[in-house]
Amino acid sequence: MTLSDVAKQAGVSIATVSYVMNDRGGVGERTRANVLRIADELGFRLNRVASGLRTGRTQVLGLVLADITNPFYPEIAGGVIAAAAEAGFQVFLSHGGADGRLDGEVVQALCDHQCGALIFTSLVVSDGPLLSDVVPPDVPIVQTVRRIPGIRADFIGIDDRAGAREEAQHLIDLGHRDIAVLAGPSASSASSERTAGYREALAEAGIEVSPESMLECSLTGDAGTRAAQQLLESRGHAPSAVLCGNDLIALGAIDAFLAHGLSVPEDVSVAGYDDIWFASSRLVQLTTVRQPRHEMGRAAVSLALERLAEPDLPPREVIMEHELVVRRTTARARAGTAA
Amino acid sequence: MTLSDVAKQAGVSIATVSYVMNDRGGVGERTRANVLRIADELGFRLNRVASGLRTGRTQVLGLVLADITNPFYPEIAGGVIAAAAEAGFQVFLSHGGADGRLDGEVVQALCDHQCGALIFTSLVVSDGPLLSDVVPPDVPIVQTVRRIPGIRADFIGIDDRAGAREEAQHLIDLGHRDIAVLAGPSASSASSERTAGYREALAEAGIEVSPESMLECSLTGDAGTRAAQQLLESRGHAPSAVLCGNDLIALGAIDAFLAHGLSVPEDVSVAGYDDIWFASSRLVQLTTVRQPRHEMGRAAVSLALERLAEPDLPPREVIMEHELVVRRTTARARAGTAA
DNA sequence: GTCAATTGACGAAACGTTTAAGAAGCCGTA
DNA sequence: TACGGCTTCTTAAACGTTTCGTCAATTGAC
How far apart are the first and last CA of chain B? Predict the structure, then answer.
């Protein structure tokens, strides 16, 4: 079932059918209607692979998630897929390596399939050279969540530092002074921004964080559990509150505290970051900072398509609104501990 | 950068380079090595779109998730993507409509892009005609999780009925007699199998479930909350235990019970189904039945590729191992209520 | 030394589409 | 009548691969 079949049936040339199927002008009203009818009867649909070859651009976006099993990412993917579908694009989904780094083969494969644009989540700095080596210069790149400097790519994310400051301030307002930080990997721009935000707000309030109360761990629940245990061991007692690099760390830390017989938030307040779906469950009720993930996915597609239409646009950064969400894992500091 | 460029540089024909790049025989060892070297120097990679057009088959799988934001599905996607990558395939990701039904346009778009095979999760019966209308007969279809009868498609899932029986038996063994069921939509084969399994096991133990203790709701947390509320209202008191159609319903129900001042599992035991990631969190510790989602995704790819290689295989059903996971939301029935 | 079989390489057609360039018909005006 | 300017339609050349059929060169057997 090809253009040629429809053309034969309708008694016109292949070109005419092509013009009709692509809604191009220059076709008489009668023939257009006739072709449309025949195509419909025959169940004809354009072969997008052939179009892609001929035009040199495919209606396909490549999306690389850092880790698809991390509940943070699928909603971004949802936004990307929805916006892409509206624009008539398909989405190739891949994910990075287990260590959070980008897998060169994955990016290569995407390029082999002639993606029109590439969207990445949570790049790390060492991914930079890979991208410039592998991705053809005419393929737009959008990075979300994290940003690596100096690469040819648009960015979409939130003001992590501001969110972190607000969250730290929230704890300070609740009277906490003995505050620990379980930070995400400093290789991640988002994590280091958050850590910086925490530090700034605490410093402004005259609170200093001792080295043993400032731990760096990877962005998983297990890492959070281990870090919280280490916190308890090295300090000898629980902090009054803990600021975590993301929600998974926070949940892992809560696990650890509960296992030590501490209650949250009565004994220790815990705050996360991201507002993953499950943070809002009544069973958890985690205080956190929300990233508009679905909207970020949509916006990433807009950036990509805009640049596709106008390649010479200057590099752009879109910063979306975040929101401090106060729930049940943070509470007023105990009188005794607030000093 | 095309075959032609490499051929020119290596002083051989396009055909020869093609044979080399595809690891076909009939090329001398010296020329092969030379072509490989030149291709590497030039950074040449085959254009998969052109290959796809020429061969009529693309190295692409289409994956349609019922709902990407539902934490149940991304792990299936992870398995699919991993297995596909190993076989040199890319994966187009789409998702169904908000009502859980398949969107015809989505399937059409996937076919327009000449996917080699299509994998679906959680089809509903009314999706059947759509598939046979839209998907070309030479494109293998794999359905996972749920099965709709009579369509040209392989299936991969678990024995939902057996899992449900085991779970119900677990509650019976704990001494529960006043057991309610919050079932998923009966339009879903998985849900109705589970419901049937619950019923069978309860019936065998001589337990009958009153109509007001058997509610059907959709597979979301909110629906679970509402259903649990309705349960409490119409019955006047809490059941001793509740079997839920999936984990989300269970979590929603727990929410509702907690909101009514009941404790889980002291006042009421709750069991879910699926073992989504967060059911295992220490904050939840949900008793449930595990589906090996990652492996199901991988197996779906195997089925698809096998049928691609051998289209005349008889229809196949792969049933994977499930596992009853007993955690903290189910406990021995109170002496008083066990009657 | 001859001939058949094998190996290694090539030419060219095809896959289904897009699109530049051009032809045919029609209209109105000079 | 001749002609420029529309509109509508067609012809044909790509896009980058794969693969069939052919052929020259080499090998091995006699």
Answer: 78
Which long-range contacts link B11-16 to residues 24+ away (Cβ below 8 Å)? none
Element (H, E) at B51: helix B48-55
Question: Hey, which residues 86-105 in chain A have their CB within 8 Å of chain B?
Answer: 88, 90-95, 105
Give per-residue pLDDT as tens, B190-242: 999 999 999 999 999 999 999 999 999 998 899 999 999 999 999 999 999 99
Residue A243: closest CA among A162, A159, A184, A284: A184
State phi, psi for A109 to the nearest 5 degrees. -60, -40
pLDDT at B339: 38
Instruction: Please give the nucleotide, over all strands, whose C1' is closest to the CA of residue A16.
Output: D9
Could you give phi then psi for residue A305, rounded to 5 degrees? -70, -35
Which pair of structure tokens corresponds to residue A83?
């916006």
Give the full edge-to-edge strand order of the sheet including B269-271. B214-216, B179-183, B241-244, B269-271
- Give the separation between CA A74 and CA A60, rounded to whole angstroms: 19
**CA within 13 Å, CB half, B323:** 8
Q: What is the CA radius of gyration of chain B?
A: 25
CA of B118 to C1' of C2 (A): 59
Nearest to B69 among A47, A78, A282 (CB): A78
- Tokens (6 digits) for B318: 């792969």
Distance from CA of A204 to the nearest CA of B (A): 34
Q: Which helix (H) or strand (E) holds A225?
A: helix A221-235
Cβ-proximal residues to A7 (8 Å cutoff; 6+ apart), any chain = A13, A14, A16, A17
* Dist CA B180 CA B185 (whole Å): 16
Provide the token pair at B130.
Answer: 């759509």
> What pLDDT was estimated at residue A277?
86
Block means of pLDDT (10 residues each) for chain B, length 339 residues? 96 97 92 96 97 96 92 94 96 86 93 97 90 94 93 96 98 97 92 96 95 93 95 95 96 94 95 92 92 97 96 95 97 70
What is the CA B43 to C1' D1 distance in angstroms? 65
- How many angstroms separate the CA atoms of B267 and B80, rounded? 41
Instruction: State residue B336's pLDDT score.
Output: 59
Residue A318 phi, psi (nearest 5) = -110, 120
In the block, which residue shows the tokens 């649909």? A45
User: In angstroms, rounded to a whole number, what is the distance separating the alpha carbons of residues A292 and A295?
Assistant: 5
Helix axes A3-10, A14-21, angle to 10 degrees: 110
- Residues of chain A with confidence (pLDDT) below 50: 337-339
Contacts of A45 in chain B (CB under 8 A): 108, 111-112
Nearest beta carbon to residue A109 from set B50, B90, B283:
B90
To which H or E segment does residue A41 belong?
helix A29-42
Residue A338's pLDDT is 39
Structure tokens at A9: 């049936």
C-alpha torsion angle, residues A32, A38, A44, A46 (rounded to 10)? -20
Q: What angle do CA A311, A313, A318 make, to 5 degrees?
A: 120
Cβ distance of A74 and B68 shorter than 8 Å? yes
What pLDDT score was predicted for residue A336?
Answer: 59
Which residue in A45, A69, A255 is closest to B74 by CB distance? A69
